[in-house]
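Continuing the batch. This is chain 6 of the set; chains 1 through 5 are on the previous pages. Same settings as before, nothing changed between runs. Recording input and output for traceability.
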Amino acid sequence: MENQMEDQPVLNRIQRLVKEEHRLHELRAHPATDQKRLAQVQVELDQCWDLLRQRRALRDVGRDPNEAAVRPPEVVENYEQ
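Output for chain 6:
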């Protein structure tokens, strides 16, 4: 439970971004500004998920999860599935 509490700020950010992503997807017209914001939200989500995975991996090997850092978009966007 304590680990979940430590990750709560990242999880809260993910929830806010997912909510915004859904709202932007629901807009039918998708003006250029909305499309740009949607792309930004998707990158931010990838960064948040990456940060959360880093924190959990560090914790799993007995290291401080606060050593994790947000990686730049060009890193997280180029991971292979």
